[in-house]
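Page 42, continued from yesterday. The earlier attempt failed because a stray header line got pasted into the input along with the sequence. Redoing it now with the clean sequence only.
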Amino acid sequence: MPTSFAHALPRAFPRALARAFPRALRQRWLRTCAAIALGTAALAAFATETPTAHWLPTWTASEQPVWQAGELPLPTGVPARLDNQTLRQIARISVGGARARLVLSNRYGREPVTIGAARIALAAGRGGIDARTDRAATFGGSPSITIPAGATVTSDAIELALPPLSELAVSLHLPKPFRPGGFHWDGRQTAWLAPGDATRDATLPDATSFSGRLLLAAIEVEASHGAGAVVAIGDSITEGNGSTVDANRRWPDGLAARLAPQGLAVLNAGISGGQLLRDGMGESALARFERDVLGQTGVRAVIVAIGINDIGWPGSTFAARTPLPDPAAMIEGYRALIRRSHERGIRAIGATITPFAGALAGTPIRGYDAPPRKEALRQAINAWIRDSGEFDAVADFDAALRDPARPEAMLPRYDSGDHLHPGDAGYRRMAEVAAAAVAGVAVGAAVAPSAATD
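This time it went through. Structure tokens are written below.
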């Protein structure tokens, strides 16, 4: 019933007939007509209301502390000090949105860092940008901000419509001396450093480069109502080590290409050297699960793809005196992640540990795949992941990548060459397996939160 008609009913009522009604009935009639008018207006508003947008992370890089020389047998690969330079980093997002925000982190910093200017644009290759899309980022209306040690900041909304799976360039001017305390070790993406404030420059001809990530922790988009996220928490295999640099061929990238059309972002929370139980080249999965998974907005599912370094590091160059973990301890670690996920209504997908016979042979890293007890532990953990029924679904990466003639080793066509990390073809196969697992848990509707269990 149109609102105008409902309002007209009392007026259209014949005066003579209205006078024939007792006063109480006439008042009841007026109240009824008013209620009809209000109800009709509410229904009309509900019918024409557009779904509300919300801020959703579409890309993340898990931060880890910078280690000192001699602490680990690998170089950090990032500058020890920056001073009056522009840092430009490239990131391929998953879902798109009408507006964007930047999340910058100085979580592990020991000193404040000043951002003199920050800008975002669509990337144009080799550190260049599409100048037509160049936009400034502000923080509380200011173009600059100082981030205290241990802090994280989020920019104001940036008016830039971003297509799904687009590559963005984020440029930060660092006007004052800065010594990074945290970073992301292996971004599989070239980052660029140019002198002075070059944040507006379409190209950076005088830039130097490195492959880690600094300060940029996440990119958020104003996504449509109903959009959500899947987080992949893991180690260097999730991070994409062994894939082609600057090509976005990690397995979470392949998963993002499949899920973005469904409105599902894929957040890569891989850290090289990451472990389930122990800290290593970053905090353990148990320690960082709140930050990297549960603390993200809109998460529908998590893929737990970690554990290979819990097995491979002990007795190797990385941790020569560390004993192998007990299988029960690893299983309890997985159970803790499952329980914490379910408490938040998030589905937990378990990924089996990939084969690693001969891993890192011919490199300075010794003993990663020895002794034979490591393979027995891998098999035991994989059997529990597959058969226990405690995960909501299983992404059986081991079955997908192993050599049928030698199950402890990776099939050569999937191997990057170091016998530990897949190459592009292997990651493509893993993306297919992960997509099938995500489809199997119907992440369009989150599970109901449950009480914690022991």
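Notes: Residues 3-48 form one domain.
Reminder to self: strip header lines before submitting.
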